[in-house]
Amino acid sequence: MKKYLLLGLSLILSASLWAQERTVSGTVTDADTGEPVPGANVVVKGTTTGTITDFDGNYQLSVGENTTLVFTFVGYAPLEVAVGSRAVVDASLALDISELSEVVVVGYGSQQKKEITSSVVSLDEESFNKGNINDPSQLLQGKVPGLSVYNKGGDPNETSTIRLRGISTVGANTEPLVVIDGVIGASLNNVDPNDIETINVLKDGSAAAIYGSRGSSGVILVTTKSGKRGGGVSASYNTFVSAATVANEQPIMTPSEYIEAGGNDLGSRTDWQDEVTRTGWSNVHNLSVSGGSDKTTFRVSANYRNINGILEKSGFDQINTRASLNHYALNDRLKIGVNMSLTNRESNYSFNEALRYAVLFNPTAPIRNDQGNFFQAILFDNFNPVAILEQNINDGKRKEMNFNANLEYSLTDQLTVNANYGQQYGDDIRGEYYPRTSLFRGFNRGGLARRSVEDSRFTLFETYATYATGFSNVDLSVSAGYSFQEEEREDFYIELGDFPSDALGYYALETSGDRVTGKQLIDVASSATPESRIIAFFGRLNMTIDNGIFLNASIRREGSTKLGKDNQWGIFPAVGAGVDLTRYLDLGTFNVFKFRAGYGVTGSLPNESGLAQDLVEYDFQEGGRARLTRAANPDLKWEEKAEINVGIDFAAAGGKLSGTIDVYNRDISDFILERTVDAAIYETDRRFENAGKLNTKGIEVALNYQVANGSKFSWTPGIVASSYKTVLEEFIIDEQMRANLGAPGQNSTSMVRVAVGEEIGQIWGPVFTGDVEDGSQVLKDVNGDGNLNTAQGNALEDDGDFEQIGKGIPDLEIGWTNQITYGNWDLNAFFRGAFGHSLVNTFRAFYEPIDPGAINSYNRIKSDKQIPEITNAQFSSLYVEKADFFRLDNITLGYNFDMSSSSSFKSVRAYFSVQNAFTITDYSGIDPDPVLQDRGTVDNGGRLEGQPDVLSPGIDRRYNYFTARTFTLGLNVGF
Fold first, then answer.
1. Would you say 480 and 417 are in contact if contact means Cβ atoms under 8 Å apart?
2. Which of 199, 226, 220, 182 has its CA nearest to residue 127?
3. What is the largest CA-CA distance in the chain?
4. Containing H/E element for 386?
5. Could you list the residue range(s) of the whole structural domain that residue 816 is in?
6. What is this structure's pTM?
7. How far is the CA of 775 from the CAs of 502, 650, 712, 877, in angstroms?
8. How far apart are CA 439 and CA 388, in angstroms?
9. Which of 224, 250, 282 is the last residue of a domain?
10. CATH number, residue 115
């Protein structure tokens, strides 16, 4: 690693710098107001040499012969001025209503928005979602067409499920690649939402191909806030307090209804859902100090979050600190930047299972018996929900630290070299303890303890050079570079039982009777990843012709140790072109109409290392032996995505209407899957191989309209919409059933059909006719053969009476933003909706039928879809519901106080926000949000089985967290 760093530094420091130069200076002002424009970019045309204006709009820059200066600033049209023999060059910038001059961060550099030929969306702080935002991905929810962000229920300890343009892989990483301040693969958990300045989303293959084998699921580029040059020192304090309340509870029988239906009256009246939930009060504090001189800028921040969920004992305390330092030297030719961040989170994960058992538990049972102990009936799958929360422990601590150092040096006016080195560390420890008195899990083991530790490290070194020049009416930029990435991870897990005392919980593992007596109930596992490295060489060309024709191309050659030794290297090309037709045609009301098209190839790597290698495990049978359990595959390669994207960017004259339309087609092939193979050839029957193919077609639209833009009142609504369809074209099994419904009583029931040549997301089952006989549903003879075959194991039989009864993936997702200002007031109302999807309401499937043999001990769901005559549980179309919804996701009202006469405060803003204000839907469950992947059933409401299944969307599981409605009062102060 050191040799690569020294090589980059030697390239920077060894080149000749000096040329025939002189100094020019001037002031940049607003053309309408005459006010100075601080922070404007001043660049020598055709080069990367430049500076920015200070707080008063002044600049100073060394230039060569025959120089033209380009002045740019966000929201203003670029201005080119020939210097000639002048020593003073002033510039007056006019507002750019199209905003296509905005500089957008893309992979390894930036481009003006008008030059981009791929599908890229850029959001700044003003566009982010507001309120109680604790996960940075929630800033984007509903804001980017094609980007789905869902956190089912809103568990504060659960990260959101993120999908960009649907399913991007079956056997590898489904989440977009995150790049924070140039560090590839950085953790979103290690950046506080208050510290984010912009987020750019690279949606299509031509934009993401520069990131090679990690870009198939899209790329999210995060730029954190930094100090401004020449802006002096400033500080800000942001704080809010929020109250999260239960938005919806499961509809169940009241005690009187329960008794009337035949339930045992135990004498009490207990609202169990109310007992395990609460008003979750949270408070957040963010303090930052930033500043800068002409040579050095800095920003430091500290963030404290005390977050409490609506489920008792769920939430976390988190401290995050971040610091950035930038220094400019050698007449602004050298820029040195350093970023550091540290996060320390202590979480109480609580038990989502308490929510499920609060639905089931007898509503006439007391919380405690006369002796003061928790009341508990000895029944199958029936536990006192309050006891689950009060008796047991489920918590953890996570620490993350990252830093990176960046050097940017202009060797000449045209040539710039960049070097970036970074590391990220993660340390996660979790613990569970179930005492001997806990019937939920510890009773049968004499107390049960679980401990797990995971330690990870990621290292990055990249260097690249950019050459920019111009001739005639052509501007050209060429970049080439090298990337080195290395990751390591190790973990440890232990489970023990039979403890003599519960006093020390999981801190006294050595007292376990399992260990002392040698019982075979101990569960121990430990692992470390094999060597995992990525090495890549990449290049890119950007060309602008006549300020109206734009060409982009890139290529990346990359190798990964996660792949087979004979197939570790791959090539990822991309090409794109665009033209602003208004440069050459009279399009009437349009002052911008850019047509663009791009093609790119990206890859995807598995999360695990060593899948291409032999796996040898130790077998304790027959006296103990090492046994090959998975064969190596030297030809294992990356998953590959090839994508074509065609788009239009437009703005109508006057700037009131603007928008984008994108249409895409993507083919994803060579999934990395574990398959059954011939043991006679491979010495074992398991092996990872490449197989399968998906095709996704979709359309995305974003529209903004400026209804009013006066000095006193403004209103700008915007809408984003997306739709896609994914078809499984090839797979290792032609047709199969997935997504098991689970216990009790329905372990043989699978709910999702996956078939080659058909669309992903089919919820599959028998069809309820509406009639009931002897307490059971009368099901439809789907194939009309006169023979009813609805046994779950026969779902795929030729004579099976099953069909598609729902669709797990939405046909349409929309987001509607309204930004309104009136004087010192501002209002942001954001609506979100999804249409065309269904959900399996598993609560109804299990607990709605009133079984006479069970109603005396278990409560039941009571919905308007309930049919009282049904007493036998049977999965069918009756429990699959359309889940279309339209929701006021976030509404924020703020007031900006006039601080013009204050010598202490620059700005003061107070605001009130409501999240999940209301939802319009016919879904009878608690949350109609789509479920894009299935995490399977649980063992007694506990540990999840396996990895999420992206081929099984649409299952609303019983362990989902309840949905919250959150009220937030906040204050932003600038000093």
1. no
2. 199
3. 99
4. helix 385-391
5. 736-970
6. 0.86
7. 47, 61, 66, 17
8. 9
9. 224
10. 2.170.130.10
